[in-house]
Amino acid sequence: MRIVIAEDDALLREGMALLLKAEGLDVVAATGDPDAFLAAVDEHRPDVALVDVRMPLTHTDEGIRAAVEARRRYPRLAILVLSAHVEQAFATDLLASGSARLGYLLKERAGRVEQFLDTLRRVADGGTAIDPDVVTQLLSRSRTDSRLERLSPRELEVLALMAEGLGNAAIAERLVVTEGAVHKHIRSIFAKLDLPPDEQTDRRVVAVLRYLDDVRRRS
């Protein structure tokens, strides 16, 4: 797995690089600004990019804009975004480019090494991994949406864990319920969100992205 890192905090940038190299991963470049990041992506054609949301010059959305541009140039590039806070507009900007091979992780969770590495591998393998705190906050901010109001509190919990990338068995373990109960909740979510079976789309991802898109439109 070839990785490019974009993080303006030198200590964090070098720390991540050392951690990933210790795990046998190939960090081909570690950059501190958006332009250097895009140049490194063009040069090395990595499998995965780790990108901080806020980078120079204004420390607002340069990182996420660079990530969107990198995905435009290389649609199969896996991207794991790291942020200190929930950036609702930025999250949906990136997810609008497609959900596969994308992750959004809060930095406090990135400090949990095993979880961070698991998320990185999941995204590199083509999955979607959205920090559960991000999903919870974005969903709670969109409570005025009539479709969201159809969901029960337990269904919202299941939806957040689906967005984190967990399968039914892992969701059941997290919520301390049976796998059959999780399956029933998911079927109910799909029904309430008007998501019939469709071989061309992943309903689990659509169920989350629909609400992230609602938040983006209202922001």
Automatic annotation (TrEMBL):
Domain (HTH luxR-type): residue spans on this chain: 144-215
Domain annotation Response regulatory: ranges: 2-122
Gene3D superfamilies, per the entry: 3.40.50.2300, Winged helix-like DNA-binding domain superfamily/Winged helix DNA-binding domain
PROSITE patterns given in the database record: HTH_LUXR_2, RESPONSE_REGULATORY
Any one Pfam family match given in the protein's UniProt record, by short name: Response_reg
KW Repeat (keyword) present: no
Modified residues (4-aspartylphosphate): D52
UniProt keyword annotations, A-Z: DNA-binding, Phosphoprotein, Transcription, Transcription regulation
Protein name as catalogued: Response regulator transcription factor
